[in-house]
Design brief:
By secondary structure, this protein is of the alpha/beta class. The chain has 7 helices and 10 strands. Helix 2 packs across helix 3, helix 3 packs across helix 4 and helix 6 packs across helix 7.
Length: 254
């Protein structure tokens, strides 16, 4: 019998409200799900369903209005330093070099200059950007910028990697290449990351990458489905089982 991996985090009856000029808006309502070490989870749902809000809750950037989040069995009540985020719009600082952009998370954690430069250079090399350390973001293509964002997240050596629509701003070929590289990183034991939670608006991308797909309904976001993707990798989008899963998730969203 296969041993179950340790529980990494759990959202328990999480509701999230934001106060806007027109009044309180409930973005998420009674969200319950958990993740175990080593899982790759994708979150899909319509625009405004609270997908990105879930990532910010897991990272500790915001606290739930109601309910709680447990990380390794303990309530998460501050920034989760075992997590790192990759953003849709790259989030690079244009006045810093690539090396300095990758270093920035390490600097914020008090790592000395020599150590953080060494570690930043290591992860820049790992994402295929060796030689671009002194370049600036304006000199890079979109795909290269996202590699910098990935290197920056990996440099703090997080246990959980949070990704907010990381490939949506890229062309199709670049997206395919980066998805393949992400799976390589996730499965490579040389990297500390063993759990990935990714938000995407593309159902096919979620099925291609993830072990599980969490489906959110329209605002306020509620879990409409939590589906295991039991398909062998690499996954064939023309496989009838793949297309059946696409249809199932689409029907849950619709």
């Amino acid at each position: 019998m296969k041993t179950q991996a340790p529980l990494l985090f759990r959202l328990e009856h999480v509701t999230q409200r934001f106060t806007l000029p027109q009044g309180d808006v409930t973005v998420l309502n009674d969200i319950n799900f958990e993740a175990r070490e080593g899982e790759f989870i994708a979150i899909v749902g319509p625009s405004g369903a609270g997908k990105s809000t879930i990532l910010r809750l897991i990272s500790g950037l915001i606290m739930p209005s109601d309910g709680r989040i447990l990380y390794k069995g303990r309530p998460l009540e501050e920034i989760n330093l075992e997590s790192a985020m990759v953003f849709q719009n790259f989030g690079l600082l244009p006045w810093l070099t690539i090396l300095q952009n990758v270093e920035i998370g390490l600097e914020a954690r008090g790592v000395d200059r020599a150590s953080r430069q060494k570690k930043a250079a290591f992860y820049i090399d790992k994402v295929g950007l060796s030689g671009y350390e002194e370049a600036y973001p304006r000199e890079l293509s979109g795909g290269m910028k996202q590699r910098v964002g990935l290197a920056r997240a990996l440099a703090v050596e997080p246990e959980i990697l949070l990704m907010d629509e990381p490939f949506s701003a890229l062309d199709a070929l670049t997206s395919i290449n980066l998805r393949d590289e992400l799976l390589d990183i996730w499965s490579d034991r040389e990297f500390p990351v063993n759990t990935v939670v990714m938000v995407t608006h593309m159902i096919e991308e979620a099925i291609e990458l993830a072990d599980r797909v969490i489906v959110l309904s329209s605002r306020p976001g509620q879990i409409a489905g939590d589906l295991s993707i039991d398909l062998p990798r690499p996954r064939n989008k023309r496989d009838p089982a793949f297309m059946e899963m696409v249809d199932k998730i689409f029907s849950l969203i619709a």
